[in-house]
Design goal:
The longest helix is centred in the first third of the chain and has 14 residues, at 76-89. The chain has helices at 34-44, 76-89, 137-144, 174-178, 184-193, 242-255; strands at 3-11, 20-26, 48-55, 61-67, 71-72, 97-101, 106-111, 121-125, 130-135, 157-161, 165-170, 208-213, 223-231, 234-238, 260-266, 274-283, 286-304. It has an eight-stranded mixed barrel. The protein folds into two domains: 3-126 and 293-304, Diaminopimelate Epimerase, Chain A, domain 1 (Roll), CATH 3.10.310.10; 130-290, Diaminopimelate Epimerase, Chain A, domain 1. It is built from six helices and 17 strands. It starts with a strand and ends with a strand. It is 20% helix and 40% strand. By secondary structure, the chain is of the alpha+beta class.
């Protein structure tokens, strides 16, 4: 029986046992099939797991990302968590950048303190955004089962995609976002009706729901957020979502102002405090989208395949 190494980290975590959990597997000999990768991801049952499949001649790393439902072309916290493990376990000397080759494309990750990875900020630059449909507030609130009065009417409801698609919905305040409860049947009906479900979406991916408010738990932060995804016919909440925050950054640059920096808090309702650092600019038609955070090591072991 063959074995591969794996590591567990918390990403976007200001402390241990916070942020978003990630399992990173070494498959440099490419012993694991796609079906096995999906099965392993389901077994460990985090939001995502990653598999490092190659070290390229130019020093970049081939990486595949799986949710418990399917392989995805990009995801935020898996990118940063994998970059941390690469820097700690696979680089011969400290470096201020690693390059991940994902299905979406090449994603560079900057390492703020290469000699002290545990306190370093890891920052990825995301791909150019695709802006999708905008939606009427009455329609969205009715479809998802909450009051239109809960929405921040100054902010449009819009789909944005930098590798994974999100419907960005601004809510009025912390009280509204904390009491938010979604019904999986209503969410699925809405997604299917708007062709945002993996089975009828042109891109073959289900659009997730990213709720944001300008009122925050901590005064030094700018936004408070929650992310919900429909997977396996159920609604799941994510503790820290780098891809969604990259889409939020693009949304803000388009609809509010540029350039900008912001700290987003997420995961508070789940008891997994998460902090995501956004830095962006819009230069003519080019979006600069940087999302960063800290990675905390938790454990490591050997997985039998």
């Amino acid at each position: 029986m063959a074995n591969i190494k794996f590591y567990i980290v918390d990403v976007f975590a200001p402390k241990k046992y916070a942020g978003n959990q990630l399992a990173v597997f070494f498959d440099l000999e490419q012993l694991v099939s796609s079906d096995q990768m999906l099965a392993i991801t389901r077994e460990i049952n985090f939001a995502e797991s990653t598999f490092i499949t190659s070290i390229e001649a130019d020093g970049s790393f081939g990486v595949r990302i799986f949710t418990t439902e399917y392989e995805v072309p990009f995801a935020g916290h898996p990118t940063l968590g994998t970059a941390y493990i690469i820097a700690k376990k696979l680089l011969d000397t400290p470096s201020n950048e690693v390059l991940l080759r994902l299905k979406k494309g090449d994603i560079p990750v900057r390492i703020g303190s290469p000699d002290n990875l545990e306190t370093s900020r890891f920052t990825m630059q995301q791909a150019q955004p695709d802006f999708g449909a905008t939606f009427d507030s009455e329609m969205v609130s009715t479809a998802l089962g909450f009051s239109a009065n809960d929405l921040d009417s100054s902010m449009p409801i819009e789909v944005v995609n930098t590798g994974l698609p999100y419907l960005i919905v601004f809510l009025k305040n912390l009280n509204v976002i904390k009491k938010l409860k979604l019904n999986s049947d209503k969410v699925e009906q809405f997604l299917r009706s708007q062709k945002l479900h993996k089975e009828n979406s042109p891109i073959g991916l289900t659009t997730s729901l990213f709720f944001v408010t300008k009122e925050t738990e901590q005064k030094q932060h700018q936004y408070h957020s929650r992310m919900f995804v429909l997977e396996s016919d159920s609604i799941w909440e994510d503790a820290a979502t780098g891809s969604a925050n990259g889409c939020l950054l693009a949304y803000l640059l388009k609809n509010v102002n540029a350039p900008m920096s912001a700290i987003v808090e997420q995961g508070y309702e789940m008891g997994r405090e998460s902090l995501l650092y956004l830095d962006g600019a819009l230069n003519e038609n080019e979006y600069i989208l940087k999302v960063g955070g800290q990675v905390i090591p938790i454990s490591e072991g050997t997985w039998s395949i």
